[in-house]
Design a protein that fits this description.
With 111 residues, this protein is α+β, with helices and mostly antiparallel strands. The protein is built from six helices and three strands, in the order H-E-H-H-E-E-H-H-H. The protein is elongated. The relative contact order is 0.17.
Length: 111
């Protein structure tokens, strides 16, 4: 899904905005800083990432915490809430469905 040649943007199933599902997947393994999220989400601008993270926070799927390392300013990190983690299973089912029907989806979009 994070491969630049992957047509995941064509998926008809979305959680929130265009980027929300991919942000949730990035946070699946644990908390990440803003800059760490930008690495796998190559095509997202800082402004759009900020907007998407705020929308996910507002919906209760993501929480923003600040962690300070000794001698450094606090750095915000983003992580999934319990509610955010609960959406992973339906997302897995949606991804499996899309994989099973990918050719049909592409044919429909081309016609």
């Amino acid at each position: 899904m994070f491969d630049p040649v992957c047509p995941s943007g064509l998926s008809p199933i979305r959680v929130g905005d265009k980027w929300a599902g991919m942000i949730i997947r990035c946070l699946e393994e644990g908390p990440r800083r803003f800059s760490e999220l930008r690495v796998p989400l190559r095509g997202i601008t800082a402004k759009v990432l900020t907007q998407s993270l705020r929308a996910l926070q507002r919906d209760g799927l993501v929480i923003r915490n600040s962690h300070a390392a000794p001698g450094h300013a606090p750095a915000p990190v983003y992580e999934l809430t319990a509610l955010g983690r609960s959406i992973l299973e339906p997302m897995n089912a949606a991804c499996a469905w899309a994989a099973d029907h990918w050719d049909d989806l592409l044919d429909a979009r081309e016609s």
